[in-house]
Amino acid sequence: MTSKQMKDMDEALLEQPAIRPALKDREGYGPSLLTLMGFAFLTFNSGMAVYRSNGDLSAISFVGFSYLDLVLLFYCLRRYEKTPPESPLREHLKMAVWLLTTMLTAAFSYKVAAIMPFPVQVLVWAMAIATILGGFYAFFLHKEGAKA
Predict the structure, then answer these.
(1) Could you tell me which of 124, 134, 62, 71 has the C-alpha nearest to residue 98?
(2) pLDDT of residue 32
(3) What are the respective helix, strand and coil percentages of the chain, to the nearest 5?
(4) How far is 50 from 146, CA to CA, in rounded Å?
(5) CB 11 within 8 A of CB 21
(6) What would the pLDDT profile of 106-135 be if each residue is shown by its tens digit?
(7) Which chain regions cross the lipid bilayer (predicted)?
């Protein structure tokens, strides 16, 4: 290959957009097979956890809360992806996503910390708080292109 051909190829590559357009949306179609399988797996495991709880109301509540939180989280994320960037609804959905992830983090941290010795409990809660605050910073305070 000659240097002129290489130069022409380089220029052609530079002219292509850096961000490729998204694939056609599946508007009008239902959820994908992989999504349905994921929700079936989540539902089955949640049902088995409730069945094995032997009537323990706190365990059933935890499983029910976690299941509902995850379903709402996936719903809000899907709506967020479909909402135009200039829409005010996008900010509300972002807040809902952060709140749902915060609640899920707190619920799992509570369950994990309950079976750990005190020093590990402190570590679990410190990691949960760092995760929650990091998510808040990433979602609401960090501006793209700004230097840290």
Answers:
(1) 134
(2) 86
(3) 75, 0, 25
(4) 47
(5) no
(6) 999 999 999 999 999 999 999 999 999 999
(7) 33-51, 57-77, 97-116, 122-141
Query: Contact 32/26 with Cβ under 8 angstroms?
Result: yes
Low-confidence ranges of the chain (pLDDT < 50): none
| Rg, the chain, Cα only | 22
How buried is 63 (Cβ within 10 angstroms: 0-12 exposed, 13-18 middle, 19+ buried)? buried
Provide the pLDDT for residue 2: 74
Do 110 and 129 touch, CB atoms closer than 8 A? Answer: no
CA distance 145 to 21: 21
Task: Report how far residue 89's alpha carbon sits from residue 72's, in angstroms, rounded to the nearest whole number.
Answer: 16
The answer to whether 64 and 50 are in contact (CB under 8 A) is yes
pLDDT computed for residue 14 by the predictor: 64
Q: How long a stretch of residues is the chain? A: 148
Query: What's 85's DSSP letter?
Result: T
The candidate with the shortest Cα–Cα distance to 94, out of 108, 104, 83, 106, is 83
Tokens 């797996």 identify what position? 41
Dist CA 17 CA 53 (whole Å): 54
CA distance 99 to 107: 12
